[in-house]
Amino acid sequence: MKFLTLLTVSLLGLANVAQCEFCYNDVVRSCGAIGGDIGNCNSNYSGVNTVSSDLQHYAATHLEQNWKYLLMSAYFNNYEANREGFSKLYRKLADDAWEDTLDIVKYMAKRGFNMDYNITPRRKVQIQSYKMSELSSLATALDMQKVLAETAHEIHSEVTVRKKTFHDAETINFLETEFVAKHADSIRDLAGHANDLHQLIKGNKDPSLAIYLFDEHLKKVVG
Known about the structure:
Helix content is 70%, strand content 0%. By secondary structure, the protein is mainly alpha-helical. Helix 3 (52-76) runs antiparallel to helix 4 (84-110), helix 3 (52-76) packs antiparallel against helix 5 (134-159) and helix 5 (134-159) runs antiparallel to helix 6.
């Protein structure tokens, strides 16, 4: 009698497990009906679904900033502005934004969902004209980098919630390893450049000379 009771409990347990949405169950059902769906056979797990849309907007923000930085770089590289150091700085930021876009898209594919390239950024820095002064361009770049940093923090906070359906340690690690420290360094550098240039212009009787000297400095320090 005891054996029959244990057997019954075991069979009921197996029946409950069979109702769960697992890849194995999809395969079994698919084999029973040719052409059936095996949608659960993917690399999607834990709480990444919570921020799948946020990651796509984050990638779109990087992509938009890539071409904005390219336009800023092109403006300072023309005969009118002729600021090679500023052009070099914005070209580097453009390249970084492009590489980060690729990293986010690859990460999304790794976690089981694709990038929707029709998505537009939720947050963006509006630029009225790319014919801006050197100091204004640094302020704009600083604002753009802060948007990236704050967005990363928002996504991080969503998957740090200690609930099974939200928490995702892999996404936390991805953001911290690839973006958080990088954004902090970039913001520090741009804030330093903006304040240094402001002080040079403010304390120099010939602002154009101060800007020229600062541009020469940028040519040397930008990697």
